[in-house]
Every structure is written in C-alpha cells, then in structure tokens.
Amino acid sequence: MHSSAGKLATARQVEMIVRQLDTLSTFPQVAGNALRLLASWPTETSELIELLKHDPALSARILAVSSSRIVADGEPALSIEQAAAALSGEQLRDALLSVGVFQAFDASAAEQEEYTVRHQLALHALAVACAAERLAQDALDADLKNIAFSAGLLHDLGKLALLEVMPKSFLQMVKQAESEGASLNSIEQQNLGLDHTTLGKRLAEKWRLPKPIQTAVWLHHSDTDAVASHIPFAEMARIVHLADCLARKASVGSSGSYEAIEDSLFSSANLRLNPLHLEQLLNELPEMVRLKSERLGLHLPPAARHYYGAIQQTAAQLAKNNLNLAQTSRQFQIKSRQVELLDDFLARIQPDDTLDTLAFHLAEVIRQAAQGAVSVLLQNDLGDSSVSCFSVDRQGKHYSAMLQLPAGQTVAARQEKEDFSVRLIDSTLDWFFDKYSGRLNPAVCYTVPLSVPGIRIGKVVFELADANRLEFLAETIGPLCQSAASVLQTAAVARRHLELSERLAEVLGNLQTAHRQMAQIETLHGVAEMAAGAAHELNNPLSVISGHAQLLASSETDPKRQEELRLIQQRTEEMAQILKDLMSYARPPQPQKHIHSVMDLVQEAIQRACKIHNLPQMAVRLEGLDSLADVYVDFEQIVEALTNILLNALQSYPGENGPIRIARTPLQPQNGSAFSISDQGCGMDQRTLANAAKPFFSARPAGRRRGMGLARAQRLLQMNDGTMMITSRPGKGTTVTITLPST
Fold first, then answer.
1. Residues 572-578: contacts with CB within 8 Å, 24+ apart?
2. What's the pLDDT tens digit per position in 208-217?
3. Which residue from 725, 663, 729, 666 is spatially nearest to 173, judged by alpha carbons?
4. 534 vs 540: CA distance, rounded Å
5. Which residues pair with 726 in a beta bridge?
6. Label partner for 409 (CA 20 to 30 A): which of 46, 60, 64, 357?
7. Residue 580 has what pLDDT?
8. CA dihedral 244, 249, 252, 257 (to 10 degrees)
9. Closest CA to 422 of 372, 475, 368, 493
10. Could you tell me which of 461, 501, 497 has the C-alpha nearest to residue 477?
C-alpha cells in the first residue's frame, strides 16, 4: 500500500514538472537555419515552413501558439502550413525564438550522451512521420491526411519532455530498457508510475495541439483495435503505431525501446493496406529520412559556441522584452478595480483546462489582488495523505509539487455549515512553511478556505504586506474563492474520470498480451496431457523393445547384427529420456521456497555446470552479487535454472569455457534482486533469439542437445515468480537478465 502511494505521488510530481514546460529544445543547427530563413521572411516562406514541419520542437511550438490565437468560434489549425498562415511575422518570430537550443558544443561526456540520444530520437521521429504520411494516403480520410506527418513527428512528445526536464533519469531508463530488452513504456511505469504516452497526452492537451495528434501521442503503443470504436481519431493512432513499427524495423534512429517487434504487428488488414506497399515503404524509409535530416541540418556537427551563443543571446533579449511587456500588462491589471476579480478568473478559463491550470489561474488572480506570493493547496480525497500545491511567487513564476501531510493534519474536511473567512496563518500550517521555506513569508501570510457545500476541498495561502487592505480584500475575494472552489471540484471529478478512462484504455491494450499468455498456458497444459499419455502408452513398449534388443544382442554372434541391436537399444533409451524431459518441463514439482542469498545460488550453479562439463574451473567473473537482497525461492529449482543458463553460455564458445560475467544490474526491482549472466560467444540472430526459450528448439548441430535448457530455466524461474530476459547480437555475445523475488 505504501509503495503504491509512493508511486502515485512520484507520478503526480513528474506530471507536474512536465506540465510546466512551455517549449521543447531544438538542435543548434536547426535553430540557426530557422533564424536565417526567418530573417528573409516572407520571401523564403516555403523553405521555412518545410523546416518547421520537420522539427518536433518547432512544430509543437507553432501549433501551440497558433491554437492560442484562434478565436472562440474559429477552427483550430491542423497542419503546420495552416498554423504558420494564422500567425503574423512578429508572432512567428516570437514563437521560434521562445524555443530553447540544446547546447552541444564543448559538451561534457554526459551532455554528449544526451545529444546522441536526442539525435537518435529526432531521426526516429522523422522516420515515423515519413511512414505515417505515406500510410495515410491509402488509409485515412482526406481531412486527416495533411496532419499525419505531424502526428508521426510528435508521437514521442512525452519522451522529449522527459528528456527535457530529467535528462539523467531518462538516459538511465533508456539504458535499462536496452539491458533488459524491454519497452521503454514498461521501464517508465516501473520507475515513474506512468509512461511517456500519458505525459505526452497531458502536454499535448495543455498546448492545445490538434485532437488527432493528441490521440496519436496517447494511444500509439496501445491496442487500437480494442479502443477504435470508443475513442475519436483512433485510426490516426493506428497509423502512427504501424509507422513506429516500420521505423523500428528499418532501424532508422532509435526510439529507446528494445522489445522484440513481432511480425504480427505489421498486419495491414484493418488499415486496408497492400503488404507490398508496406515492404516498399520499409525499403525506402532510410533514404527518405536521410534527405529530410539533411534539409534540417542534422547531418552537420553541432554549431560552434559563438554561433549558437549569438542565437541564444538574441532569443534571451527578445524573451526579456516579452517578459517586460507581460509584467507591464499584469501591473495594469493589478491597478484595475478589484471587484472584477471573478470576471478575470472566469475569463481565463478554457473548456479543456485541467485542475492544475485552473489552480494556477486562481493563484494568479489572487496574486494580482494581494500583490504577493500565493499557494493553492488541494487535497484529492479526505483521507489522502498528500496535498497538491500550486504556487505563484512574487515575480509571477509558477511552481507545483506534491507535499506529504504530517500525521493528523489535513487541508480538507467535512463541514456542516459554510465557513468563509480570511485569517492569519496558525501552527497548523507549520509543516507547509517548513517544506516551502522562502517561497512565502509566514509573517505576512493569510489563509482562506476553498469550500463547496458540506466539504472544504483545500486552502489558499497568500501574502498581504499591507494589513490595512485585509478587510477590503476579504470582501473582494469571497465570491472568487467560492466560485473557484466549485470549478476546482468539478475539474477534480473530471480528472478522476479521465484517469479511469486512461486506465481502461491501458487494460484494453493489455488484453492482447493476456490472451497470448493464456494461449501459452493452454499449450503447456496440452503438452502436459500429451506427455502423460505418451509416457503411459510408450514407456512399456519402449522397455519391451529395449529389453528384447539387449537379450538378442547378448546371444547374437554376428557382429553387424549385434551393432544394429545395440543401436535399437540406444535409440529406445533416448526416446524414453525425451519423454522424461517433456514430463519434467510440463509438470515440474511445486517449489519449496526459502530465503537464500543470490551468491549461494550462483556459486552452486557454477559448481554444477563445471561438473557437467568436466571443467576443473570456469572462467567466470562475479560483480556486486554480495550487495543483492536475499531472495525467496526454491533452492534446487533456481540452481537448476542458473546451471542451464551457464551451460548455454559455455556452449557459445568453441572451447566451451568462457569467459562469463555475472553482475548486479544497475536498476533493481522494488521487491527483489536482479542480475545478469553475460558471455562474449557466438551470439544469436533474431530468429534464434525469438525461439531460444521454446522447448526442443536448438541452434546447435543435430545430435548435440534436445534444446530444453533455456526452456526449462524459464519454466522454473516463472514457477518461482522470477523472470528471464534474453538479449543477444551475432558475434558479440548473449546477456540473460534474471529477476528473483524477495518475498
């Protein structure tokens, strides 16, 4: 329960951080080209629009700014061409200069690594965009074809946002996905409590990107067939999903996900696509991306410091001018009549505003009235131990955070009668000022409740340096806070419904995996029944054949016939052993679990592998196993599984002796231990890797082994609530990552 609450708090914190983004960063080469073309606007209109269309940061910014300029009864722009046409030259310039530039010249090793990942994501986004645009020509209606390229380009908006706000953590998650051969979605869920598709959707909603793009960002990794009838523009998500698979299949750039791509993912039946066209697109995609990346300038090294430094200085100066203009505008609003506060708040509200945005609207209006910093504290549920905090400081900068309530404290409560009053803060808010030290001055702070009939949902804490204005301010903000509380409560309920709908989409998306797992279980049951029947029907005849062959051989004087009889006996014994192996795989004994150290399990497996291979000593290196948490497993079953994995690693070498590395993985599960077994042997190709853990599959020459080693290992690990993930490259070696539970 505690871990679930912690993961939920982490997810909300990450979402708050991401939602504060106004723009993404672009490459210095792209920024330089954009400024060069902008200087000759409007004579170079088509070339500039082409550049905007092919860069995720610039595309997102232009669409967002254009959307904010559309009048209430107007139609939002869908394509980059429409968005650019809706802006004046000054608005277009300001939008481009507000986009950050990633500093990559003279970068540290960590920054160079981040640049490489950014570059690979950019190439992957271009590949998905090109593929989506081509697929849309045959599969989408005319009004959606023009937006398919932008939907593909921005499908990984959430990844770009995570890389922007938490680059070190994002790069670590990419490395974990690569080491485990897993999807980045699952790694993000494991570490953050939510994945980039949800974050990207929230950011796309905040920036008011076109609805088809929002859907593609949200559902491009989901089972769109399951949700197509429930969610508008699901066909766009299906197109982008297929385009993503094609881009990964063509190995253009890198998406940060490393799970295997099944051929079934490329089914074109629901999209009415010709498989031959898909194959042609797959072959043409690398060249298409190369041409577009050269047009952007991505093939060039990062610009020199004085080059993009000048760009950044220009952008900073213009941004400073814009900030001064905005502050002047806010000062003018502060001097207006304070009885217009409610109208000011209502005028800010947009139909698709989230709870976070509404809370910031309220904080901003009160900040202008009180001329001091403001925090809005909202408790999601009466029994919740965390509080959402939305703050606007004295300079108008926004902050958001999830704060933990001390035992016995609350900002929400049931109340029998309405209680609206502005009061000086008291000791019940000491915990808040301890955590938010420096943001607000408690010596001049007051508090006001946010209440709906029967329930107080939160509080507003604000600074008011001039106490003589308190009575007038209290009368002024009364209607504002009462109305805002109702709006915030409605938004909170809407967010709960939204989270439930997103969870439903996730569940529907997981049905396909669940069905596949059920099919595997049913197949295993069928194997068990077949093995039991085969053992019953075949063991006795085989014993009779073997016995008679042995008896006849003992009395036979012809050497040739003796050899044939011995061969019959040998083959019947091999058939009996196959049945025994099959029964052992299908119906292993139930595990007898106890607490064991990972080091003991590994060392015992090494000894057994050496004995089986008749090795006096194995060339193995152990790293970090002593620091792993103890695990709760069946000793014999896990040792057998590890032994089979070690034997498979030994067989990858010509001399069958190693070296083998067994090491603790960088990221550990919350309730268990993870380690990897790596060799530098022959490795496996994609076909071999896909079938490596299947019973009786073997890439070894005929007659060497029956191919039950890895299948048996995986079966025993699963019975002990463990997992096994195999990654391999031909000629480079194989890594098997193993997780075992601690409870």
1. 572/542, 572/545, 572/546, 573/546, 575/538, 575/542, 576/538, 576/539, 576/542, 576/543, 576/546, 578/706
2. 899 999 999 9
3. 666
4. 10
5. 736
6. 357
7. 66
8. 60
9. 475
10. 461
- Per-residue model confidence as pLDDT tens digits over 569-624: 777 777 776 666 666 666 678 889 999 999 999 999 999 999 988 888 888 999 99
Residue 441's SS3 state is coil
Burial of 54 (0-12, 13-18, 19+ CB in 10 A): buried
- Residue 145 CA, distance from chain mean position: 27
What type of residue sits at position 100?
A: G
Angle between helices 275-296 and 109-139 (to 10 degrees): 140
Token look-up 């196959």 returns 578
pLDDT digits (tens, 9 = 90+) for 4-62: 667 788 888 888 888 888 888 887 778 777 777 776 666 667 888 888 888 898 888 88
Say which residues have a Cβ less than 8 Å from residue 436's Cβ, sequence separation at least 6: 375, 389, 391, 403
- pLDDT recorded at residue 586: 62
Task: Pull the structure tokens for residue 149.
Answer: 């390229």
Q: How far apart are CA 439 and CA 392, in angstroms?
A: 9
Q: What is the mean pLDDT of residues 660-683?
A: 91
Contact assessment for residue 104 and residue 302, using Cβ atoms and an 8 Å cutoff? yes
388 beta partners: 378, 402
Per-residue tokens: 105: 């010249």
Q: 97-112 burial, b if ≥16 CB within 10 A, otherwise e?
A: bebbbbbbbeeeeeee
Count of H helices and E strands in the chain?
27, 16
